[in-house]
User: Fold these one by one.
Assistant:
Number 1:
Amino acid sequence: MTALTDIPEAQAFILHWGEMGSQWGVNRSVSQVHALLYLSDRPLHAEEICDALGLARSNVSTALKELQSYRIVRRTHVAGDRRDHFVAESDLWELLTSVVTERKRREVDPTIAMLDKLAAELRDRKDVPAHVRERIERMHEFMGTLAGWYDDVRRLPKSTLVTLMKLGSKVARFIPGKAKSDS
């Protein structure tokens, strides 16, 4: 059986996914472990991951914990083997929604809470320039609207989400009062 990392295209995908992970604020090894598991047609145990990617066991262990916290990798058991094995979510919509949900929980929700606190503190402050108060309130409203939109969209069936994505900007024609584009 050919190892995934012996396939040049698979190796390129794993390396690129690691680079992209770095751009998205995710550790390169975490992204590479995810890419390897995503491409694998069977559950892999930690030692196989270490050997395939040339990573230290501690890096792989940390990566697996991080990926499990995003709910895009899960632990599974293989009959006759006492070791934990791991598989990646292969449904791309599930993968996307899991990542976005976790990023919202970690990044957007705390920002909204902080902006809510700041906006409340600034309401009674007369010594703060009006533009500072206004911009923080606008950012709070914007982030709240974004989170509300996400919550609404997340409840839509997958088939509806796919249709919306394929419609792209054409969906704007269904919005009342929307001027037609010149393009």
Number 2:
Amino acid sequence: MPIEKLTSSASSVAVHADLDSVLVSEFDIKKRIKKLGAEITALYGQEEITIVAVINGAILFTADLIRHIENPIRLDCIRISSYRNDTKSVGKPQVLGHLSLDLANRHVLLIDDILDTGKTLSMLVSMIQKMHPATVRTCVLLDKRGRREVEFEADLVGFQIPDKFVVGYGLDFAERYRNLPCIGVLKPHLQNPPEWA
């Protein structure tokens, strides 16, 4: 599957005072998601897909992506804690919620916002495989290969990005910045555990 290359124009303008630069523009996100939807539709043919979204991070990506998938879709969500209030994944990911749909003999597409260490998606795929699905595939908006600690590659990737701490379009720092329409690099002096109430 093709992966979108980042262009230099994306980093030329910051749309929020807390961003050092914009890594992926709102326009490029929309364009790539439309292509991903077409790729997923072609990949599954007429088959129904059970989508499992990792929230909160993948909530915007999933909502926009499924509008471009033509297949019948079932949707479930699971909550994972790995970053907390830090800029790096902290220890072993913890599952904070449980799936409600039966995944046995279903085509499962696991969607997450970012693949960096690989620990979260590797753990979730192993967990889902124990539920005896027909197939399990993964789709991520961002792939940060420079941070990989576990050997894992996603089946579908929106953008490959450098090892920078990014926020926006669902990605957060201490639950802030998820609502930004673009994906940007958080200014270094703001990448410390916050003292926000």
Number 3:
Amino acid sequence: MKRIIISILLFVCINTNTFAEKNKLIQASLWFRYKADINLPKKNKIYFEIEDKIHIAPSSKHSLFYWRIGAEKQFKSNWSLGGGIYNAYFGSSDLTHQSTMHIPEVRPFINIGYKQNINSFFSIAHRYRTEWRFIKNTNKEFTETIDGFKNYFRFRYQMSLNIIPFKKDDKELSIALFDEIFINAGKVVKSNIFDQNRFGIAVRYNFNKIVGTELSYIYNNQFKSNGIDMLGSQILRFTLYTNFNILKKEK
């Protein structure tokens, strides 16, 4: 309980003080995601997801397309351990959409998760993630890629409050309130050690044990590399989930 209170106070301080009085650009984005989970024996899981992130305002066009594949092991004490690889392509074009540049990124990561089950309808989840980011270099004009990659670490902590207001047979409605902070570390990180804070709400409905959908609203505050300018993103995310079981039949 003490950790929960400290985490909430930390997030409140970040949202009310850190982001005040900054040079801030506001943008709107639509994210479309598909995620497939394959459950294996002994509480093991592999998963795959793809997502297309499209910035729709202001008028300059940017997009990010990525895929992620990973594996996870659940333990009896409600802890989980996993990791995988993330591959992304950031696309950018000018206002006339005549020139386009694609910047690849490769990102191995590891996760540690912990879930506190308060009762059958309410839980609190914690996720600790470490990412090693390799991003293709670009020229100073940001018009083309050049040889080499810059690399640095990013540490992420997410806390979510999860509520299940409706559950009947295989159908389930769940609501999640979440907040996630991002911290950068490495030689190339100069001013934006605190990278971003992402918070929002997600509503998910599982039609059965296999298929579910989710609608999320996310507000993301992100520092530019100079540590002064900021980007505030209002995001709507649409997700399609599929869940498959490859489990041994009980005798």
